[in-house]
Each structure stands twice: as C-alpha cells, then as structure tokens.
User: What shape does this take?
Amino acid sequence: MSTIRNLWSSRLRTDFRAALVVLFLLALAPLAVTNSYALGILIVSMYFAMLALGWNLLAGFTGQFSLAPAAFAMLGGYATALLGYHWQVPLAVGMPAAIMATAGIGWALGRIVLRLKGPYLSLTTLSFAEIARVLVGNSHEFTRGDQGLNVPTLMDSRLGYYYLFLAVLALIVVGLYGLMRGRAGRFWLAIRDDEIGAETRGIDVVRYKTLAFALSCAICGFAGSLYGTFSQLVSPELGLLLQTGLVISMVVIGGIGTLTGPLIGALPVYLASEWLRDFGNIQMIVFAFAVIIFARFFRTGLWGLATAWRSRPLRAAKHGPVAQGSEKTAGDAP
Assistant: This one.
C-alpha cells in the first residue's frame, strides 16, 4: 500500500512541476504576444482552463461526470452582476459572494444528485444546467434576459487582466495540488477507483463526493465572475452546453485526472474553436470527433503522451544493459 502511495505522490509531484512550467511559460507569453486581440484570446483560454481544472477535480479525480461546469460559471457571473446591478454591491464583495453562492448551490445539489450513479448523475446535472440557463434567460425583469447584464471592470489594462487571470489560475493549481496530497485527495481517488470498496473501508462517500462537487462549482463560479468583469457582460450564453463541451474536450485532450492536462488542453482547443468559427457552427462536431479519438487511442491525453515519450529513453537505458548481458550469457553458454 505504501508503495502505491509513494508512486502516486511521485507522479503528482512530477505533474505539479510540469504545471508550474506551463504557468511560467504563460507568464512569459506577453513578451512575445503584444497584440491586444491575441492577449484577449489567451485570457479567455485561461478562463476555460479554470473551468477545466474545476471539472477535472470532479470527473478526473473523483470519478463523477457532471455536465454543469458552464452553468455554474454562468451562475457565478450573474451572482456578481445582479448584486452590482440591483444593490450596487462592489466587486470586492460581489466576487466572493459568487464563490459562496455557487459553492452553496453545488453542495445542496450534490447532496441530491451524488447519491445517483451511472448516467443518472450526468442527466441530472444536464437538466439542472438547462433549467438554470432557461430561468436566467426568461427572467427579464430581474436578469434582463438574453440582453445580459453589464459588469464593472476591475482594471482597464488588458495586460493587467492577463496576469490577474494567470495568478488565479496558479492559485487554483496550487490549491488542488495541496488537496490531492492530503486526506481528501486520497479519499477522492479511492472513490474514483472503487466506490464500494471505499465505502466498506469507512469513507463517507456521499460527503466527500459532495465536497468535491461544491469545490468544483466554486471554482467554476469564481471563473465566471472573473470573466464577467473582463468582458463587462454576463449573459445566458455563458451556460450553453457548447461551453461545457469545450471544457470536457480540453480535459480529455489534455489529460484527465492530472493537473497539467487541463492547462495544455485549454489553449489549443480554444484556439481551434476560434479558428473554426470561420467555417460555421461545427466546433462540437470536430471536438466530439477529437474526444472519441483520444478516448479510444490516447486515453492519457497530451500529458500522457508527453510523459510516455519522456520515459522512453529511461526505459531503454534501464533495459539495455540487461539485454546485452543476456546476449553475452547466451553466447558464452556451452
């Protein structure tokens, strides 16, 4: 058991260090990318990376497949916007309120839906996401419907926003790393690998699944609130199923169940999404096909391919002398 735990800890450290390298490269990106539009693309990519990390906590580390990350981003954005629009609540209060509101909704919803298993959990979260989006879109007197709500900006500098998003993204990565190293992380992995076995060993499965769901929702809600201040507008489009499809594609292509995967999956998927806009509304078709290919042939995603390529020379060096020794022994045998 200790050997398995040490192996997981070693892999997690390697994964975390690689995530820090990705974040460091992102920190250097503005030195080469000075165009305002390109910086905006990178900022939105980091927004999706936050959603991907939040969804990955639930699906990749806990084994619970939700279809509501975009809906909770929408709810987080609207929590901040509605407080400012109706009651002139400042962003310093409205943004933390978005975290608490989405975490609370996630906890309450999790207590209900996380007792379900298999496709029922996914269908329930999908139903919740669509109900939330329709309610927001049809509550014209309160939310202004499809017109959306204006949100005050935190700063005028796009470069400043870039590093703010990067700092929040780094904070999420560090926080998830700390959680996965601790008791909660071990319990989540046990639930993912064998839920019945985890329950028989005394783990409160529903409690820890609900905790993961609430944290995932809080991350998505904060990301939505932060994105609203950047775009200065929140609308029901934030909760479209297409947005959730992008998030899932990013995690699967990047590497599910890792810290680095959502980071390296977010940028290429979002860039491809922007490029595909010129060819009509075919993003979901392309990304669904990509997810099928990765799920069938490259289940560990880009991060898994990178680690496999990195470890190949080490395996060759490890087994090379053995093979040579075997040939020598066979040649010397009478």
